[in-house]
Amino acid sequence: MHTYQIQLRRTDMDALQHLNNVVFAQYLDEARADLLAAHESPDAAWRVVVAKQSLSYRTPLVFRREPVTVTTVVQRIGTSSFTLAHQIRDTDTVYLTATSVLVAIADGASRPLTPAERDYLTALSADALSPSAT
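The structure assignment produced for this chain is given below.
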């Protein structure tokens, strides 16, 4: 599992002081960038596009000083794509659940994931977190 903390900003709020729905997607993007940056090298940076994203809003998130956490696990690894499952939450409340399908690209077309990318993603998979996987 990958975790990423985000400090809410007043500019992220709508007129009702709830986190704007578009900002949730931006938070997911920040967390994904951090997740992928953990497995980058100067000669091998991730080149992916978000092919599909589904967000389920659970409860309004209002401004507060405490950060929220984006948790991410790899749900599925395909030939050239992978699916991430996200939650935006704090200790007590899940504000959003989401899935994102990312496709690896090169020269404007999809490409197979490399063995190193697969190994990294496998380590972050939900299966790797289950007790039976140890």
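Interim note for the steering committee: Helices lie at 21-37, 115-123, 126-129. The longest helix spans residues 21-37.
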